[in-house]
Design brief:
Length: 311
């Protein structure tokens, strides 16, 4: 079913003794001003991984194949042919390729750059995600020495096993803004047979990914990274209202072990004239570690991020 509501929102991801998004040196990714942040790619990956694990068609995720030379990652063309079980040929019509691309849950949400010989397609995603800045001011980077169980084979004189390092933050709180424009694919509706544009099903899967993608994903560096809270401002069908990046309307502080999210500034943004355009506001959070304060809007519903039950 075609989705007709614009959505603006935020997703908060906490990291405790973990590394949500490392740079190539292994340290948490940071700006030139040493502000720690997570990229949109780091945000999307656990969601795409979750979808892939649950049997959805996901195109832009690393996968492997085996040939006579061993195991290697698939190319984009190989991944396309694997996911859609079809050959990608130069003479293939663009609209047939587009139809396949839009059937992948990651493409219909995040868009795609599909540059293969004979096919050069760029799809701007309905879901756009900003960079996730760390809004916790007391973050420290911790470097741990790790003893490897193996000797360095390149050092013939080595008599002990080698050392390594693991880099984490003691605590960080990444805040990602996002917006959804469900009309961005309308130009394709009359081109692709049976295509109805961005769908409610695609939105629900994205929303689900925002609520549990990071929590469900566990690797050595990301264990300790969780979906802490998320805000979804759903506009009424057909509304063309555009809201600014919501990050500047949120502040975070700690009171004991509790994370306090102050949404007071959202009251100023969401004035009466703005609220006329709003269908509902949903706020999901981890009630065991997070407290949401300051939002005094009747349309706002507060829910447990794990159970989805109203609090």
């Amino acid at each position: 079913m075609k989705f007709k509501n614009r959505v603006f929102g935020l997703v908060g991801i906490s990291a405790k003794m973990a590394n949500w998004n490392a740079d190539f040196s292994g340290r948490p990714k940071s700006t030139s001003n040493n502000e720690i942040f997570g990229s949109d790619k780091a945000f999307k990956y656990p969601i795409k991984y979750l979808w892939d694990q649950e049997g959805e068609k996901v195109l832009y995720i690393k996968s492997f194949k085996e040939d006579k030379n061993g195991i290697k990652p698939r190319s984009l063309k190989e991944r396309y042919e694997y996911v859609f079980d079809t050959k990608l040929e130069k003479k293939k019509k663009d609209k047939d390729v587009l139809k396949n691309l839009f059937s992948a849950i990651d493409v219909i949400n995040f868009g795609a750059t599909f540059a293969e010989e004979g096919q050069n397609l760029s799809i701007t995603g309905a879901v756009q995600i900003g960079q996730g800045m760390n809004i916790y001011t007391d973050t420290n980077v911790e470097i741990q020495d790790i003893l490897s169980p193996f000797r360095n084979p390149k050092d013939a004189d080595a008599e002990a096993s080698s050392l390594g390092t693991k880099i984490v933050v003691d605590e960080a709180h990444y805040l990602y803004p996002f917006s959804i424009n469900p009309y961005v694919y309308d130009e394709y509706i009359n081109i692709i047979d049976g295509f109805e544009g961005y769908t409610k099903e695609a939105y629900e899967k994205y929303k689900d990914g925002c609520l549990r993608g990071a929590t469900a994903f566990a690797s050595n560096s990301k264990f300790g990274c969780d979906n802490a809270y998320a805000i979804f401002i759903l506009l009424k069908e057909g509304s063309k209202l555009a809201l600014p990046n919501l990050v500047s309307f949120i502040t975070l502080k700690k009171e004991g072990d509790k994370v306090i999210i102050d949404c007071s500034s959202l009251n100023d943004l969401l004035s009466e004239s703005i609220l006329k355009e709003v269908e509902n506001i949903e706020i999901y959070y981890n009630p065991y570690e997070v407290e949401i304060k300051g939002l005094s809007i009747n349309k706002a519903k507060f829910m447990n991020i794990f159970t989805r039950e109203v609090i």
